[in-house]
Input
Amino acid sequence: MKAFNSSVGILSLLGNFISPGTPEAPQAVAVMSATTYSLPALPYAYNALEPHISAQIMELHHSKHHQTYVTNLNAAVKSQQEAIQSSDIPAQVSQSRT
Output
């Protein structure tokens, strides 16, 4: 897997999955000129894929795993904005390596 050399690369990659502005995408809220993402509701019930995928697995995957991705994205955006606003070059560089 190719490593990204900037958090912008990661943000653009994740933007393919959770970009604001489309009906099925999470709602974005402007905060400190950054975007805050939230987990969108599924367009179907958790038990809609039974018996192939259980409702319990769907709920766990959506409400825990996907929420973690959104939470980590918001933390990365916030850290990046704070580093830019405070002109903290070492923090900007360290974030661009992840």
In short: Residues 1-17, 19-32 have pLDDT under 50 and may be disordered.
